[in-house]
């Protein structure tokens, strides 16, 4: 995957020096859609309700983003230490149930996303020029050899894509 047809994210448009700043810039968007726009209302039920069977709620998407950021940070460190490691899946669907994503507070999730963005952005910022070319085996959706630059771009894509997912869901349910 080098381009996402659903959100128009193009991996090559994001160079190694911009990924950290771009990640950090998304923190405000998550806080806005999960917390700020609901200030003074009692409509946070919109954030925990699944819009359709098999489609996560905004809070569940937020939890997924938080966990992806933390997992990608650990994967980055592993790939900087090991030669071409193969990463364990995060079991996203199972994790949503096992970690009870649907029970989490929108405000807490937004705070945790900001924290996880800071950790991931800081880790990617520290990669040296020669580090970006190191490779790993990324197992989703199928095992593929990828560079650490791709890992950073993919992490950014996950955050951008799911922020759009949340905004779209909230936009259809917010009345």
Query: Termini distance?
Result: 36 Å
Residues in helices, as a percent range: 55-70%
Number of separate structural domains: 1
Radius of gyration: 16 Å
Question: Helix segment count?
Answer: 6
Oligomer: single chain
Q: In sequence order, what are the helices and strands, one letter per element? A: HHHHHEEH
Strand order in space, largest sheet: 1-2
Mean pLDDT: 93
**CATH top level?**
Mainly Alpha
**CATH topology tier name:** Four Helix Bundle (Hemerythrin (Met), subunit A)
Largest sheet: 2 strands, antiparallel
Overall form: globular
Give the beta-strand count. Answer: 2
Per DSSP, what share of the residues sits in E-state strands of 2 or more residues? under 5%
By CATH, the architecture is named Up-down Bundle
| CATH-level-4 superfamily name | dinb family like domain
Low-pLDDT regions: none
Structure characterization notes:
The protein is mostly helical. The chain has one domain (15-173): Up-down Bundle (Four Helix Bundle (Hemerythrin (Met), subunit A)). The protein has 6 helices and 2 strands, in the order αααααββα. Strands 1-2 form a two-stranded antiparallel sheet. A hairpin with a 5-residue loop joins β1 and β2. α1 packs antiparallel against α5 (106-125) and α3 (58-81) packs antiparallel against α6. The protein starts with 15 loop residues before the first helix and ends with a helix. The relative contact order is 0.22. The mean pLDDT is 93.
């Amino acid at each position: 995957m080098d381009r996402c047809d659903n959100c128009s994210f193009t991996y090559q448009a994001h160079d190694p020096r911009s990924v950290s700043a771009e990640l950090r810039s998304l923190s405000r968007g998550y806080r806005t859609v999960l917390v700020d726009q609901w200030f003074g209302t009692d409509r946070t039920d919109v954030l925990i309700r699944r819009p359709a069977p098999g489609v996560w709620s905004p809070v569940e998407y937020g939890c997924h983003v938080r966990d992806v950021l933390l997992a990608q940070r650990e994967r980055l460190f592993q790939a900087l230490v090991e030669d071409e490691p193969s990463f364990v899946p995060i079991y996203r669907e199972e994790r949503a149930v096992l970690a009870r994503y649907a029970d989490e507070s929108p405000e807490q999730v937004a705070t945790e996303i900001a924290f996880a963005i800071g950790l991931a952005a800081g880790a990617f910022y520290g990669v040296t020029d020669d580090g970006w070319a190191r490779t790993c085996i990324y197992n989703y959706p199928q095992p593929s050899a990828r560079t650490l630059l791709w890992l950073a771009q993919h992490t950014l894509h996950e955050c951008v894509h799911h922020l759009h997912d949340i905004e779209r869901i909230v936009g259809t349910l917010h009345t």
